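Good morning N.,

You mentioned wanting to compare the apo and holo forms, so I went ahead and generated the holo version with iron/sulfur cluster. This is what I fed in:
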Amino acid sequence: MLQWYAEHARDLPWRRTQDPYAIWISEIMLQQTQVKTVLPYWTRWMRRLPDIASLARSRTETVLKLWAGLGYYSRARNLKRAAELILQNHDGEFPRDPGIMAKLPGIGRYTTGAICSIAFNQPTPILDGNVIRVLTRFFGILEDSGATTTRTRLWKIAGQLVTLASTQGIGLKHTSTTRHCADLNQSLMELGALICSPREPNCGACPLQARCAAHRANMIPQIPALKPKAAMRSRLFVAFAISRDGCFLVQKRSEGGVNAQLWEFPNAECLEDEPDPENSARLTLGLELGASERIGTIRHTITRNRIRLEVYHSKPSHDPSGTSPLTRWCPPSKLAQLPFPSAHRKIVELLANRQLLRT
Ligand code: SF4
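and this is what came out, ligand included:
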């Protein structure tokens, strides 16, 4: 695996550094998100907030704006909170002790293992979806890969492998470094991402093929065994781009809930199959609107929710800015500067395409 990694690892910007801060940011961004999506976000983030001190001292709104579009916004808030604690309690130096690191907000067992091994070359294991797939297939583990007992077993195997890697010398044919813990963990993730894919893995190009239990037993489709996923749920929402004197009504989500502190257009869930925008606005938002024109539909998926968002352009029949202290009339030029979740960013794009953002 170390030799395969030395030959085949993708050249990614966070792999050109051993800075734990840069690696931490990449690991958090890469959770549930593909490399090609993360690349511009990571580059932008590192340019604007290059170290722990700059993140700790930044405004929450700046952090959310840099994160906007990646989803799971609690991850961004945890990054800032953890940076503040590192600055306060560790003089801004990233702690090397896995026990201390794991106490920081948003840093769980996987992230601790990744930072300790990749930045500090410590023999700490990692286990994510890619590693689970490689290990269950290679070792022929047929049990439900999400079960606690299976996870315990996989963490143990991952720990044994990285410990073994730490004892390897530099005599390997293609490797010139002794950063074997970093390379072994990354090789497992890389093999899962590039070769041992969920469907139709490219076993012919895999360095583990000769000893892979799933390949030998022709059982690749059955491994890893997964519980059937919960059914998707379809949900309908309406959102209102309410304009007055060229400005749009936007509201800030309150602390503690989903997408906390992000901005959005007023919106509500509809329980009927077809939206009745004026009625929804009155009943759920307390807004009296004049005639509303539908300007588009946005579809997106969040975990097991398939969401259809019908977007309306409306004029208020009275001033609704008093409905919440977190609402404001925003001129078109400022809309682009607010951190919106991606569905609401698309509303701004819809307004621009319909030429409704004139000042
Ligand atoms: S041989 Fe195939 S199934 Fe086994 S680890 Fe390699 S790619 Fe995965």
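The CA atoms of residues 166 and 295 lie 59 Å apart.

Happy to go through it together on a call whenever suits you.

Best,
F.
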